[in-house]
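Entry for the shared binder. Reason: the reviewer on the internal report wants the predicted structure included alongside the sequence.
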Amino acid sequence: MASFVLVHGAWGGAHGFRHVRKLLQSYGHEVFTPSLTGIGERVHLASPLVNLSTHVADVVNQILYEDLKDIVLVGFSYGGFVVTGALEHIADRVKHLVYLDAFVPKSGDSAWGQVLGAGRAKIEIGKGWLMEGPKRAFDDPAEAAWMQARRSPQPIGCFTESVYLSKPLEDYAFTRTYVKATAPAEGDPGNEAFLKAARYAAASPSWQYFEIASNHMLASNQPAETAKILLDIATAA
C-alpha cells in the first residue's frame, strides 16, 4: 500500500482531486489531499498574511501529524511551489516526488516571477491583497459548473513569496517525475513555465516523464489516466 499526498493548485482546493482520490483509494492506497489555507474549503481563513510559507506549513504539518513516510508527494500547478518548499522539512519522508503540470522552481523563484518574468512583486499598502485566477476549461460542462462554484480568489502573497531549497532536486534520494498536459488552453498563463520544466525533465536521466492528452485540468478531465500514472510510479521498483 502506498501513501499519496496530493497538493492542489491555486484558486482551487482539495476537491479538485476528488476523482483521482477515489480511484487511488479503490486500489487500497492511503490518499491525503490537504486543503491550503485561504482557498477551497478553507476560504474563510483568507487574509493578507497568507503566503507560500503558510501553504508549505499546511502540507508539512499534515505529513508530520499523520506521521506519513515513504510518500508519493504530488504538486499540481502552483502546488509545485508548495511541495518544493516542503522538502526542507519532510524530504526524508518522500519516496517519489511528482510535478503534475506544475511549476518546478529553483530556490529564490516565485510564481509571480515564473509567469511574468518580473522578479519579486511588492505588496503595496492600500492595494488589493487578493488575486483572481484565469478561467479554466473542462471537458464536461457539469464538471465545469461544479468546479467554478468552488473557485475563489487567492492571497497575492502566495505568488510573490520566493521558495527556498537548500540543494537541487536531483541531489535528493527520492525519484522525480514530471507529467505534462499536452493540450493546454490558448493563453494559459503558466504554460510556458510548465513547458520549460517538462522539456528539462524529458531530457534528463534524473527524471521520469509522462504526458496526458488534456488541458491543464488533468485531475478533472483525465482522472483515470492521471491515477494510472500515479499508481505506476508508486508500484515501480
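Summary line for the report: The chain has one domain: 3-235.
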